[in-house]
Design brief:
Elements (H helix, E strand, L loop, with lengths): L1 E7 L1 H4 L7 H11 L3 E8 L3 H14 L2 E5 L10 H9 L3 E3 L1 H15 L7 H4 L3 E3 L3 E3 L8 E6 L2 E6 L3 H19 L4 E10 L3 H7 L1 H5 L5 E8 L2 E10 L2 H19 L3 E3 L5 H11 L4 E5 L5 H7 L8 E6 L3 H8 L3 H7 L4 H15 L3 E7 L14 E8 L3 E7 L4 H22 L3
Parallel strand pairs: 1-2, 1-3, 3-8, 13-14, 13-15
Antiparallel strand pairs: 4-5, 6-7, 7-8, 9-11, 9-12, 10-11, 15-16, 16-17
Helix pairs in contact: 2-7, 3-4, 11-16
């Protein structure tokens, strides 16, 4: 069974907002065995919407639509759907009562509704109404010519509640869906092409119902095995067998056998082993600390750190020697070594990370061009430092530095794994 997602709104096409709805919906559909064939974004234009609906009808069994259901004149989805199905609009009593309930809750009492508010209760006469418990625009479910169409508000929290509470259960009740099983292996430190060559024979031996996808991102590659079929137990067994083969082959590049981020995998390991971490950042400006602390429970591991751009702070907070800074410079092996060992000593953590470099776009020299970064990781027994030469894009340099630092920490943790 295939699905298509259509988002409606000029604000998406001009980049005023980012379409997060489609990604979220696609994940939810995938968990119930419904594969998304295509995602489209169209403008608030009658012809564009009609064309998108007609084309989706040729490709998909289920078409989910978000956006364009507000009370203003630029929201034309409802009228266009009625035209597409060749029906009129009728007032739905339950939808009207919901509009009244929403306004009563907002105002504390119900005053006379404006006509524009009452129009929210108008729906195409061939739809089943899905009540919107978080807003005034109802969702609409259509069965037409062997296809299911579902139109929902574009406001994320309204749409999400509707999908989870109503749409997913109705789809599962209406269709016999296959099972989809996904297993993800997170790797770091090795490129996509290198990994592909390393596991080529395993990939070639996959049965037709299992697919392998390579998902690279800044020093990391996710290997996702996806299996489709009617026997969930068999699918899980088959996928787990191939996961084990790949993990054994890839070896130390494997960070996690869960679909989680690199820093979350590290946090999980350090939490389980009651290990602590501190950071000393210069060119990354606290980005590593941000990656770590965005996860709940990070305080069990992360003590804190310093963002020390100046020589003075590197000396006073981290204990870097003045002579080291002036002789070798802030971006050097010697300085990053003293930074990471200073963090370990002064912040009294089990492990530490230090980063110093030239993020750019200016500040480079012939011997230290933009993108030069030194990274250090350490525990009480060992210090590892490494020089990286990234590009000339500031944000990419910051992100690449953070991922490289976390990968180095992951390698050091493996050396001392309990």
């Amino acid at each position: 069974m295939l699905a298509e997602i259509i988002t409606i709104g000029d604000e998406i096409l001009i980049g005023q907002i980012v379409d997060t709805n489609s990604a979220w919906i696609a994940q939810k559909l995938n968990t119930i065995g419904l594969r998304v064939k295509q995602i489209s974004s169209v403008s608030d234009d009658r012809e564009h919407i009609l064309t998108a609906l007609a084309e989706a009808h040729q490709r998909a069994d289920v078409i989910l639509i978000t956006g364009g259901l507000g009370p203003t004149k630029d929201d034309i989805t409802k009228k266009t759907l009625a035209e597409y199905f060749g029906v009129g609009l009728v007032e739905n009593k339950e939808a009207l009562e919901n509009v009244e309930r929403i306004f009563r809750r907002l105002r504390g009492t119900l005053t006379e509704l404006l006509d524009v508010n009452k129009q929210q209760a108008l729906v195409p006469e061939n739809c089943q109404v899905i009540i919107n418990k978080n807003g005034t625009a109802p969702g609409m479910w259509f069965n037409n010519d062997g296809r299911i169409y579902v139109s929902m508000p574009g406001v994320p929290h309204e749409m999400m509640y509707m999908v989870e509470e109503s749409v997913i259960p109705k789809i599962k009740g209406a269709l016999k869906l296959p099972f989809i099983v996904h297993k993800t292996i997170l790797t770091a430190g090795e490129g996509e092409s290198y990994l592909a060559e390393k596991i080529a024979d395993i990939e070639d031996s996959l049965p037709p119902f299992i697919k392998l996808a390579y998902l690279p991102k800044l020093g990391q590659v996710r290997l996702r095995l996806s299996a489709y079929g009617d026997n969930e137990s068999l699918l899980n067994n088959e996928v787990n067998e191939y996961v084990a083969k790949i993990v054994e082959r890839v070896g130390n590049a494997v960070v996690s056998e869960e679909d989680i981020t690199l820093e979350k995998a590290i946090l999980n390991h350090m939490t389980e082993n009651e290990l602590t971490l501190s950071t000393a950042e210069s060119c990354t400006g606290g980005y590593i600390a941000h990656l770590i602390t965005q996860h709940a429970g990070s305080s069990k591991v992360y003590f804190g750190g310093a963002v020390s751009y100046s020589y003075e702070l590197k000396e006073s907070i981290l204990g870097v020697n003045n002579e080291t800074l002036w002789q070798y410079g802030a971006v050097s092996k010697e300085t990053v070594t003293e930074m990471v060992e200073g963090a370990l000593l002064n912040f009294k953590s089990d492990y530490a990370i230090a980063v110093t470099g030239i993020a750019g776009p200016d500040g480079g020299t012939p011997d230290k061009p933009v993108g030069t970064v030194w990274i250090g990781v350490a525990n009480g027994e060992k210090t590892i430092t490494k020089k990286f030469l990234f590009g000339n894009k500031r944000q990419q340099n910051i992100e690449r530095s953070a991922i490289a630092a976390l990968n180095m920490l992951n390698i050091l943790l493996k050396e001392y794994k309990n």
